[in-house]
Amino acid sequence: MLCLHQKQSMDKLSISLFFFFLSILSLADGGSIGVNYGRIANNLPSATKVVQLLKSHGLDRVKVYDTDPSILKALSGSGIRVTVDLPNELLYSVAKRQSFAYEWVQRNVAIYHPSTQIETIAVGNEVFVDPHNTTLFLIPAMKNIHNALVKYKLHSTIKVSSPIALSALQNSYPSSAGSFRPELVESVFKPLLEFLRQTGSPLMVNAYPFFAYESNSDVISLDYALFRENPGVVDAGNGLRYFSLFDAQIDAVFAAMSALKYNDISMVVTETGWPSKGDGNEIGASLDNAAAYNGNLIRRVLTGGGTPLRPKADLTVYLFALFNENKKNGPTSERNYGLFYPSEQKVYDIPFTVEGLKGYRDRQSPATGGSRVPTPVRGGGGNLSENVSGRTWCVASGEAGKEKLQAGLDYACGEGGADCHLIQPGSTCYDPNTLEAHASFAFNSYYQRKSRAIGTCYFGGAAYIVTQPPSTYSIISWLDLHIDYHLRLILWSLKQTIFISIVYVYGL
Q: Which part of the chain is the X8 domain (predicted)?
């Protein structure tokens, strides 16, 4: 289909792979994955066992919601980087008395560092929604904690920030219209962002696409929320196309910072996750959806790349949470965000490292608990979960019309960087000389070069994905089938830009 040849011609064609040369021009580090270690439960393993659990799964960042000595001691010498929390109830005391801040840092941070690698202090958590009205104490408390770090000569290695909820935004859709709540701009956000700029600290953000999907499942695609293949959503304000709700939420915060002229502040996502179980009215809460969200998020973060608005901004993301916590109040979902049961068994099997990603594939199970079911992928008589090799191809849709096909072909062979020389007149894949055949070749070349990333087989609706290989292959398709899949995934996971130089020798 992608390069149609008569069977007789294929029988005559002997293809030899003369050489295969990889030129790696650049290597970019991906983002980083951490985990929130909440403890509102009465059945959790000891801190020592938790540290062993983290290390055994390659998790090298952890965020705790206090400064419990047993935990900080257990983390000593582990090599795990730690974010500790100064609780909201202490904001008033820290803000009002510098001496209290000195004492708190000395007792809860300085005596453990550097053996326990504390890298950040989260001053409060989602302060703006705290019913105890602690917002006005936030900035003075952050400054006093920083002054204490200076006193103990820790300010160059330990940063100070405060996690905000997305409810701190006045507007979050479209992402380009992101803005902070007006009543918080002058009193909180401008001084907060200025403090972060001066100290080189990131803004901390808690982002939960689950909540947005649960409340708007009639208009938000589940695939879009779970990082699965989808046509994307175009931001009318800046023309960028988003293929995940997570990216759209993060860019709304970036846009809000940009509106205040703080484009230079980095971001850490201090909480995000998806519940594996929920009440009947908690749409989307399910084991399969939780596995898909967290597994695909980890792949998206560790393979690098920022958001559409900030493509170079690799993210550090903390999953919520390490364990299911049986003493949390609220709906059933609140007690089922854990990656692990208290027995230390995984709630669902997902990797946490680049190495683990080599064998990982989203099962693409039918959506449960939601009003939308992922659209089956066309072609081959099956869906992605039935594709044993895990491979997919991108082909042109004959129903799209000439205008869309031509526009997609022009983009793929031009700005998109697809290898289109084989569909030029006189070349191997020029025949059949039809727009649909040439577009299919170009679309698939672009799709494979982009490592089959989400959203790279769309072309304005002119393309779709198939899970079974076409009945006949072009030379490029043949080669694509036989390159070792694991090698390709490793290279993709390391975000290497690869150019392949291939010389074919033909014999009749």
A: 392-476
pLDDT per residue over 316-368, tens digit each? 999 999 999 999 999 999 999 999 999 999 999 999 999 999 888 887 643 33
* End-to-end Cα spacing for the chain: 23
Please report the DSSP string for 193-240 in residue order: HHHHHHHTPPEEEE--HHHHHHH-TTTS-HHHHTT-S---EE-TTT--
Does 403 participate in catalysis according to the annotation?
no
Given the residues 214, 271, 325, 436, the one annotated as active site: 271
**How far apart are alpha carbons 445 and 416 in whole angstroms?**
10
Residue type, 352: F
Write the CA distances from 322 to 48, 187, 479, 482, integer angstroms: 14, 35, 42, 39
Q: Which tokens sit at 221?
A: 């695609």
Q: Which three-class secondary structure state does DSSP give residue 276? A: coil
What integer is the mean pLDDT of 124-132?
90
Choose, from 126, 229, 282, 436, the residue flagged as catalytic: 126
pTM of the model: 0.70
pLDDT at 493: 44
> Domain locations in the chain?
7-27+393-466+469-507
DSSP E strands in 87-224: the ranges are 117-123, 159-161, 163-165, 169-171, 179-180, 203-206
Q: What is the pLDDT of residue 461?
A: 75
- Give 318's strand partners: 34
126 classed as catalytic: yes
Round to whole Å and give the CA distance between 476 and 488. Answer: 15
Q: Are 403 and 384 in contact (CB under 8 A)?
A: no
Question: Token match 């989307």: residue?
Answer: 284
Strand pairing category for 233-234 and 241-242: antiparallel
What pLDDT band is residue 192 in, cutting at 50, 70 and 90?
very high
Nearest to 188 by CA among 242, 241, 123, 271: 123
